[in-house]
Design a protein that fits this description.
The chain is of the alpha/beta class and about 230 residues long. About 35% of the residues lie in helices and about 30% in strands.
């Protein structure tokens, strides 16, 4: 079973149109839609914003639906000058950049008493997502790298430079690493797919509604293609 966690209502609506809906469940303020997409059993849900919402959502998918693969899509701010607005970043791993107990001796980003610093994505899923995105979205660039998550909107130059220097991240957002940690603890596979909405430095040049429409088209096509080939 594949769990697909979307960031936007519009995105989830399009994904629902692409599937044969079999059942729906309300839990923790979220609507879980179960059905068949591209011949595979999937559950599609919008998690809401922030790491807590994402952690709850991912655990419900695992506990209530037996999901063994998690896919998260949404938008993120670029932390790499080569990554442009509209491009896709696919996670190699994920770190919670706002976790800081460095005063106790741990590196910033390390969750105390966890046996790993970052949460690795499934290598086969990453490779497949890259291949599919190049096929279905040839008009944009595809990148892989570390996704940074925190309950913060990153817009300042100094913060961006700090994140790059400290964590070597490709993009910053607010949910993915929480799903990654949930996947790691439950021993299920995952991948994060993020469309770049800005440069994380207030330099956006595209109208946001225009970007959202384009981004949804890109990652809905990618998700559908990825599910079909899994």
């Amino acid at each position: 079973m594949i769990g697909i966690i979307g960031a936007m209502d519009e995105e989830v609506a399009i994904l629902k149109e692409s599937m044969e809906v079999q059942d729906m469940m309300e839990r923790a303020g979220m609507t879980f839609v179960k059905g068949i997409m591209s011949g595979k059993e999937v559950v599609v849900v919008r998690s809401g914003i922030g790491k807590v919402n994402m952690g709850i959502c991912a655990q419900i998918l695992i506990d209530c639906f037996g999901v063994d693969t998690l896919i998260n899509t949404g938008v993120a701010g670029s932390l790499d000058a080569d990554i442009n607005i509209g491009d896709i970043v696919i996670s190699t791993d994920a770190v919670q950049h706002d976790m800081d107990v460095s005063m106790l001796g741990d590196p910033v980003g390390q969750i105390p008493r966890m046996d790993t610093f970052s949460f690795p994505a499934d290598e086969k899923l990453v490779k497949l997502a890259v291949e599919v995105n190049k096929e279905v979205n040839p008009d944009i660039q595809t990148f892989t790298g570390r996704v940074l998550s925190g309950d913060q909107f990153i817009s300042g130059k100094e913060k961006k430079e700090y994140l790059v220097k400290t964590f070597d991240g490709k993009c910053a957002e607010m949910e993915g690493a929480a799903m990654a940690q949930t996947a790691y603890l439950n021993k299920v596979s995952y991948v994060i797919i993020r469309a770049i909405s800005d440069k994380a430095d207030n330099s956006a040049t595209m109208d946001y509604p225009e970007f959202v429409k384009m981004a949804i088209t890109h990652y809905v096509g990618l998700v559908k293609g990825l599910v079909e080939r899994m």
